[in-house]
Automatic annotation (TrEMBL):
Gene3D superfamilies associated with the record: Mitochondrial glycoprotein (3.10.280.10)
Listed name of the protein: Complement component 1 Q subcomponent-binding protein, mitochondrial
Protein's gene: C1qbp
PANTHER family: COMPLEMENT COMPONENT 1, COMPLEMENT COMPONENT 1 Q SUBCOMPONENT-BINDING PROTEIN, MITOCHONDRIAL
Superkingdom: Eukaryota
Provenance organism: Nothoprocta pentlandii
Keyword annotations from UniProtKB, A to Z: Acetylation, Adaptive immunity, Apoptosis, Cell membrane, Complement pathway, Cytoplasm, DNA damage, Immunity, Innate immunity, Membrane, Mitochondrion, mRNA processing, mRNA splicing, Nucleus, Phosphoprotein, Secreted, Transcription, Transcription regulation, Transit peptide
InterPro entries to which the protein is assigned, alphabetical: MAM33, MAM33_sf
Lineage: Eukaryota, Metazoa, Chordata, Craniata, Vertebrata
């Protein structure tokens, strides 16, 4: 059984390598530096007295409907049919740290499931801000006691200003598009690595 499993994994790795779009991770425009720790990625940028970091994790970043299709296509390869493009749309957290304050503004953003892939609506943003809070700078554990603003019930004018505030710091639709591409490439890379680890694990006697 293990031998068959290992052979299946070998074929699967070959297939995945074939459809892998990026051999190296795509670059983000706008001077972002990238740090990757396993499934977590962090983008950093400094702008006039501010440090902006965007953190996201590729785990559970593929929308469920795609995962089901993916299971089916990965399970039964029909050579004529084009596989649906698997896209990773992770939630991402933007932190804005001003040099002269002890507070960090934290904006929790996500891609609404129905928005992704809907072209043609130029006006709509492809990501939304879900929550906003202040956190003490430099502390890794966020305080549950700090007030967190949920944007569901927010005055739209204030929400627009928050979106503009992000756009001024380089977090706009272009950024969000590139983030999807980066995250998708990272997810695929990790998936292939996982299959390789699984193969070694299965073969290990």
């Amino acid at each position: 059984g293990d031998k068959a499993f290992a052979e299946f994994l070998t074929d699967e790795i070959k297939e995945e390598r074939k459809i892998q779009k990026h051999k190296s991770l795509p670059k983000m425009s706008g001077g972002w530096e990238l740090e990757v720790h396993g499934t977590e990625a962090k983008l950093l940028r400094k702008v006039a007295g501010e440090k902006i970091t965007v953190t996201f994790n590729i785990n559970n970043s593929i929308p469920p409907s795609v995962e089901e299709e993916e299971e089916e296509t990965r399970g039964q390869q029909k050579p004529d049919e084009q596989e649906p493009d698997i896209t990773s749309t992770p939630n991402f957290v933007v932190e804005v740290i001003k040099d002269d304050t002890k507070q960090t503004l934290v904006l929790d953003c996500h891609y609404p499931e129905d928005e992704v892939g809907q072209e043609g609506e130029d006006e709509s943003d492809i990501f939304t801000i879900r929550e906003v809070s202040f956190q003490p700078t430099g502390e890794s554990d966020w305080k549950e006691t700090n007030y967190t603003l949920n944007t569901d019930s927010l005055d739209w004018a204030l929400y627009d200003h928050l979106m503009d505030f992000l756009a001024d710091r380089g977090v706009d639709n272009t950024f969000a598009d590139e983030l999807i591409e980066l995250s998708t490439a990272l997810e695929h890379q990790e998936y292939i690595k996982f299959l390789e680890d699984l193969k070694s694990f299965v073969k290990c006697q």
